[in-house]
Write a structure and sequence with these properties.
By secondary structure, the chain is mainly alpha-helical. The chain contains 14 helices and four strands. Helix 5 packs across helix 6, helix 6 crosses helix 7 and helix 10 crosses helix 11.
Length: 270
């Protein structure tokens, strides 16, 4: 039986056009998106606004920017140069940038999303609201804001698996998942998960039965996705807090399926 590789990509072309923010500014981030691997998706956008700012502010903020960029890629060097110019001109406060990065790395991370998933697992009414209007349901728990203004929650079934990507750049739901992992922003993931989702999932250790269809959701500048992973076996009677502890970032992107829990609630929370 041939595995169902069904690449059911959901594109919002109006939202993609909104990504002209980057194009209209001559792609300030200095990143150019190569669509050679996406001939079948008719993206007429030759830009990439990957928001991967390298905010390593080891430099002297007296504006003596004598940097050795020899260890940086061309893209990273261009981003660093742009950041230096913006700081020099007073358009950007490096302390504010550091604070934003620190917040999403340490205070937000994927923990917010894990709480959303755990609530959906334990509260059927909340689950229904989440699937019907994810933005509003997520806001019920106090999460929302930049990069999470418009959310959609998708839920795997016995015959459908969901995985999320942003083929255009690195759009990602910051309020629930924090900052995107490096691999999510990489050209390899962004192109290959569309062409060969099963192969990419297998590299993450996720091997699906042949009868399962893989649906790929393409995030845009205006729409972000959250996968609500299936609740693993062995978690009956667990508290919401204990359940949230086993929800991983990758499971909410769709590159991981949560394994059955052989341990009791006490051990799972450790």
């Amino acid at each position: 039986m041939t595995p169902k590789n069904s690449v059911c990509i959901s594109f919002d072309h109006d939202a993609l056009e909104a990504c002209g923010w980057c194009r209209d500014r001559s792609c300030e981030h200095g990143l150019v998106h190569d669509h050679d691997d996406h001939d079948d998706h008719d993206h007429d956008h030759d830009h990439d606004h990957d928001h991967d700012h390298d905010h390593d502010h080891d430099h002297d903020h007296d504006h003596d920017h004598d940097h050795d960029h020899s260890d940086l890629t061309d893209i990273a060097a261009r981003v660093r140069a742009l950041e230096s110019v913006l700081i020099d001109k007073g358009y950007v406060d490096p302390a504010a940038l550091d604070a934003i990065i620190d917040t999403y790395q340490h205070d937000v991370g994927p923990r917010n999303g894990a709480r959303v998933v755990a609530r959906a697992w334990t509260d059927p009414a909340y689950r229904e609201r989440l699937l019907a209007d994810a933005t509003a349901a997520i806001a019920e728990l106090g999460y929302g804001g930049r990069q999470g203004e418009h959310m959609v929650a998708v839920e795997p079934t016995d015959d459908t698996h969901h995985v999320v990507v942003c083929t255009l750049c690195s759009c990602y739901p910051w309020p629930v998942l924090g900052l995107p992992p490096v691999w999510y922003k990489s050209p390899a993931y962004r192109s290959r998960v569309v062409i060969d989702p099963r192969g990419v999932l297998a590299e993450f250790g996720t091997v699906l039965p042949d009868h399962v269809t893989v649906r790929v959701w393409d995030s845009t500048a205006e729409l972000r996705y959250l996968v609500v992973p299936r609740r693993p076996a062995g978690t009956d009677g667990w508290s919401e807090e204990q359940l949230a502890a086993i929800v991983t970032r990758n499971s909410m992107i769709g590159t991981e399926v949560l394994a059955p829990q052989g341990a009791g609630p006490a051990e799972a929370g450790s």
